[in-house]
Design a protein that fits this description.
The complex is a heterodimer. Chain A is mostly helical. Helices cover 79% and strands 0% of the residues of chain A. Chain A is built from 13 helices and no strands. In chain A, helix 5 packs across helix 7. Chain B has 2 domains: 228 residues, Rossmann fold, CATH 3.40.50.300; 158 residues, RNA polymerase II/Efflux pump adaptor protein, barrel-sandwich hybrid domain (OB fold (Dihydrolipoamide Acetyltransferase, E2P), Beta Barrel), CATH 2.40.50. The chains are: A mainly alpha, B alpha+beta. Chains A and B meet through helix 8 and helix 9 of A and strand 7 and helix 2 of B.
Chain lengths: 260, 398
């Protein structure tokens, strides 16, 4: 027996089509024959290298800052927690170009923090560091939100038990909290990595588009879309494949988390 | 006995004010209505809750006080709860080894210690299993092993059997009883069987205050509050095991059957009030223990009448229908024959002594008839089904 009205099929098919048709359409235009040649071109390799490098570093930063943040949010109560949780979630829905502008006026040469740094010779705007900062800014919430949910669901009971058994708070964190949250941590990390990899608006606004320094894959694709559409399509294919892998991995990990 | 663990504390937002001392080696059961503050006491001892004022001491050392608070991981108390809360990412062995490892043992030593504990509790076959692959009883047994593996100074038990199937809890109770010998434990429970089988002392908490504190026998004989009267429900008779299947109470014998009762040891027998019938003359041919008793009081509670009896100096409460009471024309201080065992009687034996602990297994057995008038050479006739023999905890000083 159907548990939904039959007409629901119509929007269902429409929704799927909306999401799938453009991707399929693009796949038909990808220059499959010239793919290897296009992907090893210097311009392509440079963008790939820069994207991989910045995403790995920003994901590392996100982990170092995000895991303890999620833990504190999950284990605290009170008005300030709600405020902090809102603060953490806002960048998720903030238009990236706004995020980039916020970063620019703060860390740019004349910014609140950028100006004093500039005095001592440290420039952040329009450098690779700016790319990493922008990526960390937009992807941190993804990790915190998904990890916090998992930590809250496990409720801190195991941590209390471990404490009674004699484990210090740090030992509890490494031996109990992290392993139990392992699947959620891994899927949150994958999502944050994906968000960093796809980051465009904040990077363009805050870091600009300098080949080899700040021009990551999405920026390169945007730039190439008219001048060399075949290369743009080839690079897009790379991002699609990575996206599919990450979503698959995250789904698998979440299922594993429920099983454990 | 002097206090080893001593609490004199107040917790304002839970309206708890109490003073409680526990001697080394003693098992104290804490009972009380929901929300009375029983679990709060355990949290205070464990250190997960800090009292607003007052002190908690162990030996001479202050654990919690105005000048400091030792966090849980710096104390040596284990906590067993209703749910086993085994770490889901570790197998049984590593769950049990977690405590010793956290307290400075090497990995190999901790595993060795854990394996010994698992063997004692009959879990060594399951050492490599994940908690998800254990039954409820096995998981709770593993939780007990994990708690014992740190050699806790005080074992804190918060309704450890409440979530278990009734077919599993007796075995676990027996295991726990063995492992509680010479250990200090605080046991929060809603189950009268836990008290009868495990506790030396009974403390009742109501609305954050201790309302009764004494030996299990004294409180069962005269429950001082309504909650305790309802909680106790059944009668407790104490005496000495006479044979493997009988408890001697004064010069009377209460019979059931047990395969490992040891004669000469202190024993407890519980008798349900509705399992007692009262006769003016010895009942003929009826399947019962028959004991001479004296009626000391009668009270009516709507559909039932409560008759207070005295057997060998101990108090028994019988529930009869008002009709039965009026037919008997009972008056206090009249001697009557007491028949017991018409539905369920529980004979319990306590076995703490020089030769170490032993337990009677729970068995469904036949009750037997004893002619109350000819005790010495009574004809013993098996008659009634449903008598249960259960184990007993030590008497205080037993």
């Amino acid at each position: 027996m159907n548990r939904y009205p039959r007409w629901a099929w119509l929007p269902f098919v429409g929704g799927l089509a909306l999401l799938a048709v453009p991707i399929l359409g693009m796949l038909t235009r990808v220059p499959w024959g010239r793919l290897p040649e296009l992907l090893i071109s210097p311009r392509s390799l440079e963008a790939l290298r820069l994207s991989l490098f910045t995403c790995l570093i920003s994901t590392g930063i996100v982990l170092i800052l995000g895991v303890p943040t999620a833990l504190v949010l999950a284990r605290s109560r009170g008005a300030w927690t709600t405020a902090a949780r809102t603060l953490v979630t806002v960048p998720m829905v903030l238009p990236p170009v706004v995020a980039g502008l916020a970063l620019l006026v703060t860390f740019g040469r004349r910014g609140l923090i950028g100006a004093p740094l500039s005095q001592v010779g440290i420039e952040i705007g329009f450098t690779t560091a700016a790319v990493i900062l922008a990526q960390s800014f937009v992807s941190l919430p993804f990790l915190v939100v998904s990890l916090e949910g998992a930590l809250r669901a496990s409720g801190g009971e195991y941590e209390r038990v471990a404490g009674n058994l004699g484990a210090s708070p740090s030992r509890v964190f490494w031996k109990v909290t992290l392993p139990i949250a392992g699947p959620a941590l891994a899927s949150g990390t994958a999502l944050a990595f994906a968000r960093s990899l796809g980051e465009f608006g904040a990077t363009l606004t805050f870091a600009g588009s300098l080949q080899g320094t700040t021009r990551t894959l999405p920026l390169e694709i945007y730039l190439l879309r008219e001048s060399d559409s075949e290369l743009a399509l080839a690079l897009s294919l790379v991002l699609i494949v990575v996206a599919i892998l990450i979503v698959g991995l995250a789904t698998r990990l979440r299922a594993w988390g429920e099983y454990v | 006995m002097s206090d080893w663990l001593r609490l004199d504390v107040t917790v304002r937002d839970r309206d708890l004010v109490l003073g409680l001392g526990v001697a080394q080696g003693e098992t104290v059961a804490i009972v009380g209505p929901n929300g009375a503050g029983k679990s709060t006491v355990l949290q205070l001892v464990a250190g997960s809750l800090r009292p607003d004022s007052g002190e908690i001491r162990l030996g001479g050392e202050i654990l919690s006080g105005p000048d400091g608070h030792l966090p849980p991981h710096r104390r040596r108390f284990s906590y067993v709860e209703q749910r086993s809360l085994l770490f889901p990412h570790l197998n049984v062995l590593d769950n049990v080894a977690f405590g010793p490892r956290s307290r400075g043992m090497t990995k190999a030593e901790a595993r060795q210690r854990a394996m010994d504990e698992l063997r004692t509790l009959g879990l060594d076959d399951l050492a490599s299993r994940r908690p998800a692959a254990l039954s409820g009883g096995q998981a709770q047994r593993a939780a007990i092993a994990r708690a014992l593996a740190i050699d806790p100074q005080v074992l804190l038990l918060d309704e450890p059997f409440a979530a278990l199937d009734v077919t599993v809890s007796p075995e676990l109770r027996r295991l726990l009883h063995d492992r509680l010998i010479d250990r200090t434990a605080l046991l929060v429970t809603h189950d009268v069987l836990d008290v009868v089988t495990l506790a030396d002392r009974l403390v009742a908490i109501e609305s954050g205050r201790i309302v009764a504190d004494g030996g299990v026998e004294e409180i069962f004989a005269a429950p001082p509050t309504q909650f305790l009267a309802d909680f106790v429900g059944i009668n407790l008779l104490h005496g000495i095991a006479d044979t493997p299947d009988a408890v001697r109470i004064g010069d009377q014998l209460l019979i059931g059957t047990g395969d490992r009762l040891v004669a000469g040891r202190p024993a407890r027998a519980t008798v349900a009030p509705n399992a007692i019938s009262v006769h003016l003359e010895p009942p003929g041919g009826s399947p019962r223990n028959v004991l001479p008793a004296t009626v000391t009081g009668i009270a009516s509670h709507g559909p039932i009448a409560e008759v207070l009896l005295e057997v060998g100096g101990q108090r028994l409460r019988a529930e009869l229908t008002p009709t039965a009471v009026s037919e008997l024309r009972l008056v206090p201080n009249q001697t009557v024959e007491l028949a017991e065992g018409s539905s369920v009687a529980e004979l319990c034996e306590l076995l703490r002594g020089a030769h170490g602990p032993e337990f009677a297994r729970i068995l469904a057995v036949s009750a037997v008839l004893i002619d109350g008038k000819r005790m010495a050479d009574a004809a013993i006739v098996p008659v009634h089904e449903g008598v249960i023999i259960d184990v007993l905890p030590p008497f205080a000083g037993g």
